[in-house]
Model the fold of this input.
Amino acid sequence: MTLRLARLLSITLAVLALAGCLDRERRDNSLEATLHKYEVTIRWGRLADAYLFMRIKEGEQPEIPPGLDEVRVTGYEVLRPVVHLGENRAAQVVQIEYLFRDRQVVRKLVDQQTWEYDEDAGRWYLASPVARFR
Done:
């Protein structure tokens, strides 16, 4: 009987460990996909859409600064790849090159992004502010 109980316990623990690994892999894949979508959004100049990656309370609208349509992004480079800050938090650092269409002077900014996973929504949200183009 003790051997049978030990086997059952071993199998149960293995199944739980596998489920935890699969959940983490799914969460990591979701983060990778979200970061890629965010990069594409920024890179192709849909800067107002970047605010949709933030957690917004129901019934509220994000505060989008004026003049974003005058910004042209010319580069997006990951300086520090994703670092997990816990099970539901991650961070990465990117450099964004851009210019204002009327000035034609290339500028750079370093965007330190923090991302949080919402278990209920099953998605990652940008917890840090969207980069400010000045």
Q: What stands out?
A: DSSP finds one helix and four strands in the chain. The longest helix spans residues 2-43. Strands lie at 71-84, 89-100, 107-118, 123-126.
